[in-house]
């Protein structure tokens, strides 16, 4: 132990320097009355074990020069009386305060950069608060953790700390500046080594020792910056803020500044160091007992704000590595935007709820004196930054938009909800106080509280690491009530996150919270708890941790802080799929610019190969990419990729196949919150029970399933039918020519040529499927009939629809399409006879599908229509659909137009995609 205490060799605070006589001599020269500490104890271990304060080391931070002037400058030296000839600290507008964050002083070049910014500021007086070089505070905490854990590698870790600062100083300084810094650095490091050794032996570090150790980063960076600035000829001094800033530690891991005492000490410090530019250490402070402490992690912003308030400065500029305060954490929301201004309250709420660009306590000190804070990017001086000040009166805006009430969003992770529930709570005074009393006793920090007005339950969020103790304390505190059944449970819901929306007056503006919850619902995110303070500045929701980023992105994009962005996966790049991709490619820019809709194809998959992208595919060359960079097709992986890319809040899968296996996944996809759009008829015309399940799910959730192109390609058939049904019309009958192929054939089968010749012509013109039997069999029409019938509420299976096949019985088994075409003329006579019969009656033949809603049945058959019937007027391959309803009884509502072909089908799918975008909040 003796050797340990002996190893603390502190050159700059040699016992001699602290001898009362020496101090008194210097003091008398300066005309001050001072009190000097007795020589500090040099035995470290008792310090550690008794948690006494390391005063000796505080003084050790002062260089020899400073010490000669301030030999009395032990931080305990409070009782100094300032004599009349001392420089008096001027306060007010002449002061400009800057704060440089860790990344700003991350290396020698950056430190020079900071120096230039300070030098260029032509304010009369400047106070600059610096953080430790980036990562250094983490390195210092790591030293403590290692030493406590008796891990020898703390020695190497300390060498790294030394090396980092030594090499930075070698780059920056020269001559006596360099040598004095290095000797101080060496001295500090050898002290730290001894302290860490003691911690290593004790296997424990007291809080004050930890704070003392971790604060060194700021001491070193401040000294280096001040030397660089002094080199340019500026009148510049560095300040060990522990001599000035006095804070009272609180139980809740916070520090409350003592402004009165700090101001006194600042006056005193300035009287001895009357410089125009002061470089002050951020983060560190002292307790009223002069024990080194810190303002806790990220506390340098707070230091700057306190300094600004003490000086009543004109403004506080916080220099960091982003262009200002973003509408959401830019690491989580790529499309976050910079906020030009924020009110003090908004900034406070944003930082409290996790926007770590600003320490939450930064606001209060400056707000008191109305001092604006500017957040600026040291790496992008052209960016104006964010100004935090009193709010511009919202009334100035003529018609404030909903969005202007919401400034930004922030999140806090690693929380758990605690729910105390029971009928015995209602009307019992003191329950809340008993609950929170128990929580306070275990020292847990309650982040959010929500209580239903029925008083049936109280629910609150605490950090996950504290929840076990909280639950135990509550169970013990309420054991009697739980036993008697007055309380039913103390439940813990782990893995939660908080999402907060922040904005002046948002909570009192109708529509804001509705929009917020709507966006969450549409992204299929379940809200576990809600709180809205009457401060009107924030609405807080608790969500599952795994949903948090998606929730953040969904609400963010909903408030137009970024575009309505939809991640799309295209399944089946055949004729229709690739036509859709072409249309998307041609229209994407217009949608983005004019309609705020950002559609991103994150993947294309065929049955064998797929192409994936993290940000959205370039649709001008997807074919080449698919063949060159594509990978083996795997539908599960594909879906996971498209969905997993959760910087985009909404996902849609577009199934352009005619495949029933793909269709069988829709239910699962919808359940996961993935929207589905398709021209594939398989799901809606497949087994009834599966169809009903799918539709029930669609109705329950906010996930959308659109299939307009399953009937009549791009013609508005499903949407027309929906419109009629939803507005309360009663459908009596739907009758139509649903097949472009059969429409063409019957429009041209007018007696001049035999039926088989018309079919051959249609085949040649590409109107039919490769095997025309697929069209002539009527199955495709039957599928459309069943889709419409089910839409009208009829519970029919495909097998319930009688279908008149135009494929003669004997030709159904032909091996090939060629053989079929060859034999078809044998049946021309039958068809000619039917046509003749119709013509004799002044009618035409048409192949139609009918949904007879009144009689709850459907049919597909050849029918005769008089020549003035709309169905008789058809030409080409048009579809025509007539809706006979209660409202449209005399004259049916008719939709007519091209109902087949890649362009119109892809167009139908595209309009479903845009419908989805508008459901998700795109402007109309
Ligand atoms: P410094 O070391 O300069 O104090 P911090 O890392 O403490 O810097 O804070 C800046 C960081 O805060 C940014 O790099 C950014 O990643 C993060 N951040 C989180 N939320 C926001 C937000 N809403 N706006 C801006 N930055 C944010
Ligand atoms: N250096 C301290 C930290 O990293 C304080 C700060 O930079 O704000 O927590
Ligand atoms: Mg910070």
TrEMBL record:
<dbReference type="GO" id="GO:0004412">
    <property type="term" value="F:homoserine dehydrogenase activity"/>
</dbReference>
<dbReference type="InterPro" id="IPR001342">
    <property type="entry name" value="HDH_cat"/>
</dbReference>
<dbReference type="InterPro" id="IPR002912">
    <property type="entry name" value="ACT_dom"/>
</dbReference>
<keyword id="KW-0677">Repeat</keyword>
<keyword id="KW-0808">Transferase</keyword>
<dbReference type="GO" id="GO:0009090">
    <property type="term" value="P:homoserine biosynthetic process"/>
</dbReference>
<dbReference type="Pfam" id="PF03447">
    <property type="entry name" value="NAD_binding_3"/>
</dbReference>
<keyword id="KW-0809">Transit peptide</keyword>
<dbReference type="InterPro" id="IPR041743">
    <property type="entry name" value="AK-HSDH_N"/>
</dbReference>
<keyword id="KW-0067">ATP-binding</keyword>
<dbReference type="GO" id="GO:0009507">
    <property type="term" value="C:chloroplast"/>
</dbReference>
<keyword id="KW-0479">Metal-binding</keyword>
<dbReference type="InterPro" id="IPR001341">
    <property type="entry name" value="Asp_kinase"/>
</dbReference>
<dbReference type="InterPro" id="IPR001048">
    <property type="entry name" value="Asp/Glu/Uridylate_kinase"/>
</dbReference>
<keyword id="KW-0791">Threonine biosynthesis</keyword>
<comment type="pathway">
    <text>Amino-acid biosynthesis; L-lysine biosynthesis via DAP pathway; (S)-tetrahydrodipicolinate from L-aspartate: step 1/4.</text>
</comment>
<keyword id="KW-0418">Kinase</keyword>
<dbReference type="GO" id="GO:0009089">
    <property type="term" value="P:lysine biosynthetic process via diaminopimelate"/>
</dbReference>
<dbReference type="GO" id="GO:0005524">
    <property type="term" value="F:ATP binding"/>
</dbReference>
<dbReference type="GO" id="GO:0009086">
    <property type="term" value="P:methionine biosynthetic process"/>
</dbReference>
<comment type="similarity">
    <text>In the N-terminal section; belongs to the aspartokinase family.</text>
</comment>
<keyword id="KW-0457">Lysine biosynthesis</keyword>
<dbReference type="InterPro" id="IPR036393">
    <property type="entry name" value="AceGlu_kinase-like_sf"/>
</dbReference>
<dbReference type="InterPro" id="IPR011147">
    <property type="entry name" value="Bifunc_Aspkin/hSer_DH"/>
</dbReference>
<comment type="pathway">
    <text>Amino-acid biosynthesis; L-threonine biosynthesis; L-threonine from L-aspartate: step 3/5.</text>
</comment>
<comment type="function">
    <text>Bifunctional aspartate kinase and homoserine dehydrogenase that catalyzes the first and the third steps toward the synthesis of lysine, methionine and threonine from aspartate.</text>
</comment>
<dbReference type="InterPro" id="IPR019811">
    <property type="entry name" value="HDH_CS"/>
</dbReference>
<keyword id="KW-0520">NAD</keyword>
<keyword id="KW-0028">Amino-acid biosynthesis</keyword>
<feature type="domain" description="ACT">
    <location>
        <begin position="420"/>
        <end position="495"/>
    </location>
</feature>
<dbReference type="Pfam" id="PF22468">
    <property type="entry name" value="ACT_9"/>
</dbReference>
<feature type="domain" description="ACT">
    <location>
        <begin position="501"/>
        <end position="578"/>
    </location>
</feature>
<keyword id="KW-0486">Methionine biosynthesis</keyword>
<keyword id="KW-0547">Nucleotide-binding</keyword>
<keyword id="KW-0511">Multifunctional enzyme</keyword>
<dbReference type="InterPro" id="IPR045865">
    <property type="entry name" value="ACT-like_dom_sf"/>
</dbReference>
<dbReference type="InterPro" id="IPR018042">
    <property type="entry name" value="Aspartate_kinase_CS"/>
</dbReference>
<dbReference type="GO" id="GO:0050661">
    <property type="term" value="F:NADP binding"/>
</dbReference>
<keyword id="KW-0150">Chloroplast</keyword>
<keyword id="KW-0934">Plastid</keyword>
<comment type="similarity">
    <text>In the C-terminal section; belongs to the homoserine dehydrogenase family.</text>
</comment>
<keyword id="KW-0560">Oxidoreductase</keyword>
